[in-house]
Amino acid sequence: MTKMALCDKAGISRVTYDRLATQPTLPLARTVTSLADVLGLDKDEALTLAGLIDAPTPAQVAERRVRAAMVEALRHRLPDVDPAILARVALNMGDILHGLANELFDAAGEDEP
User: Fold this and answer.
1) Which of 10, 24, 52, 99 is the most exposed place for a label (fewest CB within 10 A)?
2) Which one-letter DSSP state was computed for residue 50?
3) H helices of the chain, where?
């Protein structure tokens, strides 16, 4: 993809694009997320690389991965269930997940924080 094509798809000017490489100040978040969308990059990762947000902690990365895996598993195993119903069920899963967390802490030899 050419620089101009990227600028057009991201909705930014060529001047803005050129400033990203030469400007000592931080770019606007919307510029970074627009470019990330066009390039197929994770928005949080792009914002982190641009210095606009702090890198996630290992616990935050793990939480995102678990959340994504749970959503994918529910959609894969229950493709015929209305997403609104899955959302209502998920709201009531707190007790189940709390019990699972206790089991995982026990297995790791740690106390619940």
Assistant:
1) 24
2) T
3) 3-10, 14-22, 29-39, 43-49, 58-77, 83-91, 94-108
Question: How many other C-beta atoms can be found within 10 angstroms of the C-beta atom of residue 112?
Answer: 9
Q: How far apart are CA 46 and CA 56, in angstroms?
A: 12
Q: What is the pLDDT tens value at each position of the chain, 113 positions in all?
A: 899 999 999 999 999 999 988 888 899 999 999 999 999 999 989 999 999 999 889 998 898 898 889 888 888 998 898 988 888 887 877 777 888 888 889 898 887 77
Helix or strand holding residue 2 (H, E):
none
Q: Has this prediction a pTM greater than 0.85?
A: no
